[in-house]
Every structure is written in structure tokens, then in C-alpha cells.
Amino acid sequence: MNLPPTRDFGAACKPKLAVKSRSAIAGSGTVKLIAEVKKKSPSKGIIREDFEPVSIAETYVENGAAAISVLTDKHFFAGELAYLRAIREVVDVPLLRKDFTIDPYHIYQARVAGADAILLIVAALTAAQLRTFMDVAESLSLACLVEVHTQEELAIALDVDAQIIGINNRDLRTFHTDIATTFRLREAIPADKIVVSESGIYSHEDVMRLQEAGVQAMLVGESLMRSPDIGEQVRYLLNY
């Protein structure tokens, strides 16, 4: 495929000051923001009525987001692959295609649409599928955000040598969210991995707790999408 090179999603998730241990370096702005473009969720319904994905993405970048997550699942999240294509045209930060990747075709589709990274949910895949999908992604220069929620899922992610591990604070069975999930699992993740905390992050105090735990990046959607001033909420989380 004759496609433009991808942007480095992993590098975008790393703090400018490297975290040398599980205890993050003091100072604001250490945890990088992956800001999510999301209209709807299965548990909350419509999150934002005035949904203009391109404008939202531009606002995210203008106010300090390091990368953008774009929901492309139509059934549960009212997403569209077209949103990813349109956003790729106007921003230069790495883009994550947020969807249920269950077939290699979805990976090729993501690359053609302009994604720089894909989501792989351990709970939805076998270890063999994970390895295969990671190999396909690597062949296309796509990064993989490998998502876990439990110790058992984390063990699988580590066994397949996932480099970017997303800890989902939301239990996909009950939709209950607890940021403590990140703190529990973070301790078992080697220091050379990139750790992304997902869901349940609403305040700068939450961000500071993630920083203290040695988390490199956070994926935030709902608290941004519900804000009447998205840019202001981004700056608040990042302490700008």
C-alpha cells in the first residue's frame, strides 16, 4: 500500500521528562493526554448533542492533547470511520482508532483511514489472535494499545509482549468505573512499558494521582465531551 508514514503514537504517550521509576517525576504536565472524540456510550447514551468531530479534534490539539482517540464503532458509540478520515485531514498528532478489532481486515481498514494506532481488547481476543493482530499492525507501522482490566488480562498482555498497555478503569461487564484499577495493576507492569489509564478521569487531582503512580498517559473522553468548554477542560486536566 502506498500510504503516508504513520505518526509515533508510543512517543506521544511518553512524558517529555522520562519517568525513571514507578514514582513519577514531580511537576505538572507529565501525564500525556489522549483526548477522545465520542458522541455516545452504551452506559450513558448520548454524551454530546452538538457533536462536530473535526472541530472537537482541533480544539483538543490547540489546548495540549498529545494524541486523539476516535470512536468508529457505529452501533454502541454512534461513531463513523469517516470521522477518523476527516480528523486526519486537519490535525497532525497521532490518531487511535477506537473500535472492536476482531478481524485483520479492521487493522488494514484503520491504516487506510489514517490511524496511527489501534485498540486491542484482551477480553475480546485469544492470545493467538492478539499475537496475530499485533504482527499485522507492526507490518503496517501501526501501534497497538492493548487494553486490560484484570490481573489475568494483564498477564496475557505481558506474555504477548505488548509495549503500550491500557488499563481500563471501567468493568465492561457492569460499566462500574474505579480509577483504583490503574493503581492496582500498575505495580505489576515493568518500567519499560508505556501505561495508559483509561476512563474515570475527571479532575486534575486524578491526573496527579496517576502521575504519582508512574502512569505515562491517560485516555479521557466523557469528562471532556460533557464540558460546555472543551478547551478549558483540557487545560484544567493538564494544569495549563
TrEMBL record:
- What lineage, starting at the top, does this entry show? Eukaryota, Metazoa, Porifera, Demospongiae, Heteroscleromorpha
Q: Which GO terms label this protein's molecular function in UniProt?
A: indole-3-glycerol-phosphate synthase activity; phosphoribosylanthranilate isomerase activity
- Identify the SUPFAM superfamilies for this entry: Ribulose-phoshate binding barrel
* Pathway the protein acts in: Amino-acid biosynthesis; L-tryptophan biosynthesis; L-tryptophan from chorismate: step 4/5
Q: Which reaction does it catalyse?
A: 1-(2-carboxyphenylamino)-1-deoxy-D-ribulose 5-phosphate + H(+) = (1S,2R)-1-C-(indol-3-yl)glycerol 3-phosphate + CO2 + H2O
Matching entries from PROSITE patterns are given as: IGPS
Record-given protein name? indole-3-glycerol-phosphate synthase
Q: CDD domains annotated for this entry?
A: IGPS
Might you give the EC number(s) for this enzyme? Answer: 4.1.1.48
Give the record's GO biological process terms.
L-tryptophan biosynthetic process
**Residue ranges annotated for the Indole-3-glycerol phosphate synthase domain, each copy included:** 28-236
Q: Which domain of life is it from?
A: Eukaryota
Query: Per UniProt, which keywords does this protein have?
Result: Amino-acid biosynthesis, Aromatic amino acid biosynthesis, Decarboxylase, Lyase, Tryptophan biosynthesis
**What is the source species?**
Geodia barretti (Barrett's horny sponge)
What the entry lists under Pfam families is as follows: IGPS
Matching entries from InterPro entries are given as: Aldolase_TIM, Indole-3-glycerol_P_synth, Indole-3-glycerol_P_synth_dom, Indole-3-GlycerolPSynthase_CS, RibuloseP-bd_barrel
The record's annotation in PANTHER family points to:
INDOLE-3-GLYCEROL-PHOSPHATE SYNTHASE (PTHR22854:SF2), TRYPTOPHAN BIOSYNTHESIS PROTEIN (PTHR22854)
